[in-house]
Design brief:
- This protein is mostly beta strands.
- It has one domain (about 10-35, about 50-200).
- It is about 5% helix and about 45% strand.
- Strands 1-2-3-4-5-6-7-8 form an 8-stranded antiparallel β-barrel.
- Strand 4 (about 115-120) and strand 5 form a beta hairpin.
- It is globular, with a radius of gyration of 17 Å.
Length: about 200
């Protein structure tokens, strides 16, 4: 079965990597010494609000930096018969490792409720949110924890056997403050984030 991705397919996304290099440098610098979990736990895991903690028995398997956009589209307002509101449609981001190498991409696999992360080598994880997001900054999209609902491996990869994904240290990405003026209008809002991927401990 073919992937039900949004328009953010690989050919259109990866050529834009050079445009986000300055942002990546700032992101890596700002996160060079992130706070970590308490001693005795997984020391690679970020410190997060209690509701976003990963259950015991899962350990960090990979950590990626994302630079991209959160895409919003104008839909009819339920409060105004002639008004429009911004509705989240999809993420679109390039994923980097700690050395600044491109390792994959992030996109909507089956609409906004099923985001996916896909590696250059072919592994993919699709997540679903089962816990409410946490707003850490009023100027950025919330932090999240998502449960893996499916994994697919075309080749060996970093997302194989992923059980949970955390989105932390976000910047930007919020819907525009001004309401849209016409149905179907699109807004692509820049954002950055860190994603932590977990696997069940053997």
């Amino acid at each position: 079965m073919k992937n039900s991705r949004t328009a953010s397919a690989r050919p259109g996304l990866f050529p834009a990597v050079n445009l986000v290099a300055p942002v990546l440098v700032l992101l890596l610098g700002a996160c060079a010494s992130p706070s970590r979990a308490e001693p005795g736990n997984d020391n690679r895991a970020p410190t997060v609000p209690a509701t976003l903690e990963v259950p015991d028995g899962n350990k960090v398997s990979f950590h990626a930096y994302a630079v991209g956009v959160q895409i919003y589209v104008a839909t009819a307002s339920t409060n105004s018969p002639t008004g429009f509101v911004w509705t989240f449609r999809a993420p679109e981001a390039v994923l980097y490792d700690a050395d600044g190498n491109v390792v994959g991409m992030h996109y909507a696999f089956a609409g906004p409720t099923r985001p996916a992360w896909e590696s250059e080598s072919g592994s993919r994880v699709v997540g679903a949110r089962t816990v409410a997001p946490v707003i850490v900054s009023s100027n950025a999209i919330p932090w999240l924890i998502l449960s893996a609902v499916s994994t697919n491996t075309i080749g060996p990869g970093i997302f194989e056997r992923t059980t949970y994904v955390q989105r932390v240290n976000t910047t930007g990405g919020l819907a525009p403050a001004n309401a849209p003026t016409q149905l179907g209008q699109e807004a692509r809002v820049p954002y950055t984030a860190e994603y932590f991927f977990y696997r069940a401990q053997k």
